[in-house]
C-alpha cells in the first residue's frame, strides 16, 4: 500500500469517527462527545509536536514526521470546517425574524 492510500484511509477513518452521531439526547452525552472530540484533537496536535521535536533531534524517521504533519493538517482543517459551520448557523439564526 502506498503512502497516499494509507493517509487517505486514516483520514477517512478519523472523519468517519468525528461524524458519527452522539448517542443519547442528554446534555451530558453531548458534552462528553464534544469533550472526546476536543481531547482527540489535542492528542493529535501533541503527538505531532512530539514527533516534530524527535525529528529535529534525529530520533524519528522522515516518514513518521510526514505522517504526523498530515494528521495535524487534517485535524486543523476539520476544526476550521466545524467552526465555519457553527458561525454560519449562528448568523442564520440572527437573520431570522422575531
TrEMBL record:
Residues 1-32 are annotated as: Disordered. Keywords: Bacterial flagellum, Cell projection, Cilium, Flagellum. One of its GO terms (cellular component) is bacterial-type flagellum basal body. One of its GO terms (molecular function) is cytoskeletal motor activity. Residues 1-12 have a biased composition (Polar residues). It is found in: Bacterial flagellum basal body. GO terms for biological process: bacterial-type flagellum-dependent cell motility. Its main location: other. Pfam families: FliE. Belongs to the FliE family. This is Flagellar hook-basal body complex protein FliE. It comes from Rhodobacter capsulatus (strain ATCC BAA-309 / NBRC 16581 / SB1003).
Amino acid at each position: 500500500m502506498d503512502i497516499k492510500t494509507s493517509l487517505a484511509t486514516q483520514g477517512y477513518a478519523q472523519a468517519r469517527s468525528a461524524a458519527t452521531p452522539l448517542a443519547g439526547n442528554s446534555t451530558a452525552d453531548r458534552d462528553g462527545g464534544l469533550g472526546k472530540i476536543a481531547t482527540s484533537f489535542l492528542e493529535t496536535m501533541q503527538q505531532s509536536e512530539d514527533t516534530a521535536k524527535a525529528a529535529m533531534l534525529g530520533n524519528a524517521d522522515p516518514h513518521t514526521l510526514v505522517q504526523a504533519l498530515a494528521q495535524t493538517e487534517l485535524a486543523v482543517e476539520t476544526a476550521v470546517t466545524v467552526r465555519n459551520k457553527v458561525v454560519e448557523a449562528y448568523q442564520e439564526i440572527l437573520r431570522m425574524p422575531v
